[in-house]
Amino acid sequence: MAENSESLGTVPEHERILQEIESTDTACVGPTLRSVYDDQPNAHKKFMEKLDACIRNHDKEIEKMCNFHHQGFVDAITELLKVRTDAEKLKVQVTDTNRRFQDAGKEVIVHTEDIIRCRIQQRNITTVVEKLQLCLPVLEMYSKLKEQMSAKRYYSALKTMEQLENVYFPWVSQYRFCQLMIENLPKLREDIKEISMSDLKDFLESIRKHSDKIGETAMKQAQHQKTFSVSLQKQNKMKFGKNMYINRDRIPEERNETVLKHSLEEEDENEEEVLTVQDLVDFSPVYRCLHIYSVLGDEETFENYYRKQRKKQARLVLQPQSNMHETVDGYRRYFTQIVGFFVVEDHILHVTQGLVTRAYTDELWNMALSKIIAVLRAHSSYCTDPDLVLELKNLIVIFADTLQGYGFPVNRLFDLLFEIRDQYNETLLKKWAGVFRDIFEEDNYSPIPVVNEEEYKIVISKFPFQDPDLEKQSFPKKFPMSQSVPHIYIQVKEFIYASLKFSESLHRSSTEIDDMLRKSTNLLLTRTLSSCLLNLIRKPHIGLTELVQIIINTTHLEQACKYLEDFITNITNISQETVHTTRLYGLSTFKDARHAAEGEIYTKLNQKIDEFVQLADYDWTMSEPDGRASGYLMDLINFLRSIFQVFTHLPGKVAQTACMSACQHLSTSLMQMLLDSELKQISMGAVQQFNLDVIQCELFASSEPVPGFQGDTLQLAFIDLRQLLDLFMVWDWSTYLADYGQPASKYLRVNPNTALTLLEKMKDTSKKNNIFAQFRKNDRDKQKLIETVVKQLRSLVNGMSQHM
């Protein structure tokens, strides 16, 4: 029962599956069949049975349908057989017609193929023409590019490349020749960059070679412009009647007008030949290269390269030659190259945009300026010729004015000129030291004689001498100073002129120039002239007469200092009453020189006295004096009388001091002669002879060899000798010993040590002593007295040493 119930349940399911198989696509039968096997066991057998039953049913239905339509099929076959014969006839006719039609169409086919071929050719030609019309402008532009490259029109060539790339190549980009052109353009650009860079290098080399010429032209133009301005200023001054007077010499107005006219004519000639930097250098390579790199979008590379190369050239230009300081041409070449360099940079700055900037040129100039100052400071220190230093200063001024005209700051250069001015003054001082030495060497140290009015005026024109008494004297007459005085005065004025030359064009006020002139003149007087005077005074061949004349000369030079101040005032138009005006120190200079000369007079006079004293030849053992003064002393006194006659031209104090110094030195020398340690014994006769010489000295002092002494002032120089000799001549020891130390003592100036020394030389210590031999025979008490005096003198000497 159970199986029956299962079979009853599966029968509808199998029918459903069969319906699905009949109604669905064969591709979807798989899942349906799978469900048969997924059901109960042996279900597929039942399904197969059901399937066979279904097939048999369909076969029966097909058979029924075939039986139903069989008669119609037979009839159709019969009719088809009837048509067969007609179809064969028709086939024959069609075949024949086709053959005839083929034969007739062969010629048409040939003509048709020709027409087709012609149409294809025509279409191809049209296409080619259209494509060529597109390609021809490209080819023409490329040909134009080649021509521009050949003609070295690189900037135009780059513009043509841009047109090709942006306009023409897109039209024909599919063609191979276009690809070749496109591939070739970068190479052409690189070629253009290399060629333009090569041109730039040639340009840089060219301007390096032409820098000195450019600088020379620029400096000449600046100098001409300045000369023209100065000429106009002078012309204006002359119009207003501002004529220059220097001391008593006037610069002729006609000469000024002639110089002005000549300078203006030169300026007109120079204006006709003015050259610019463009006339000397072709700047087209740098413009072209700049445009090319700008078009290529590589302007920064070009700018960096240009600046780098120019900095290298700047360092080369700023490097001076080792012997530059030897000639002015060396300095001029150095300056012209620098000016040429910066003139080119200034031109590039103003005609290009961005290649160089103001900040770049300022940085380059500051670097160059520091180097220039260091170079000039080093090389100028080697210059010993003031003319070369002056020419260097003029070059620096023109150099500074030229670059200032192009907008470069040059204040530091003018500051450097103040350093060089000090060096210039030093070289001037050295030069004038030689001039002064030559003047002193050539001077005869005698008053200047004049025999007529003309010679007198010549001397007056050279030196500001005023003496009414001398003017009243008749010819021939003599100026009190020697020939060196007017020569020195003239040379001091020449020094002021030379110092003034350096101060010109320094853009300084008249007050500053006046101060500089006075300071440099002070240096000349206080250092150079003073040193030359002192060296002259100390020279061994300069005698007393020459020293006297030197003192007279310094007196007149001292008086001339006020005229030198007036001379400077006339040059600078700065009044001496101005608060900050520097005064000339000539007064102290000549006073110092005069004092040195006076001291040298005293020294030489003493030396001369020593020479005479060395001629003394005393017989210190003589028993009796000769009865007259020694010859050497009389010669000395005659010499002193003649010398003091020369001293009449000296100031009174100088002559009096010299005379007093000579007498004191003579007294000291005579005293030293008596007390000489090598002199062992002295006789009374020798003392008496020595006394005769001292008497002559006292007579000389009392004769007033130099006026101005009061009473017996000059005789007091010999008071020590006089009291000592009186003590021994009178043999007044009791008075000396009794009054010793009293202010009113008769022998106040006799030192116990001196008396003891001389007394010991006179003691009887040998058989040759002739003085005390008689005393020992006649009176031995005197011998004891001498010994007693010696003991007392020694006690006095010992007492003095203890108090000391």
TrEMBL record:
Protein name per the record: Exocyst complex component
Top-level taxon of the source organism: Eukaryota
Described function: Component of the exocyst complex involved in the docking of exocytic vesicles with fusion sites on the plasma membrane.
InterPro entries: EXOC6/Sec15, EXOC6/Sec15_C, EXOC6/Sec15_C_dom1, EXOC6_Sec15_N, EXOC6PINT-1/Sec15/Tip20_C_dom2
GO cellular component: exocyst; plasma membrane
Similarity section: Belongs to the SEC15 family.
Domain Exocyst complex component EXOC6/Sec15 N-terminal: 50-219
Keywords: Exocytosis, Protein transport, Transport
Taxonomic source organism: Gorilla gorilla gorilla (Western lowland gorilla)
Keyword Phosphoprotein found: no
Domain Exocyst complex subunit EXOC6/Sec15 C-terminal intervals: 413-761
Gene Ontology biological process terms from the UniProt entry: exocytosis; Golgi to plasma membrane transport; intracellular protein transport; vesicle tethering involved in exocytosis
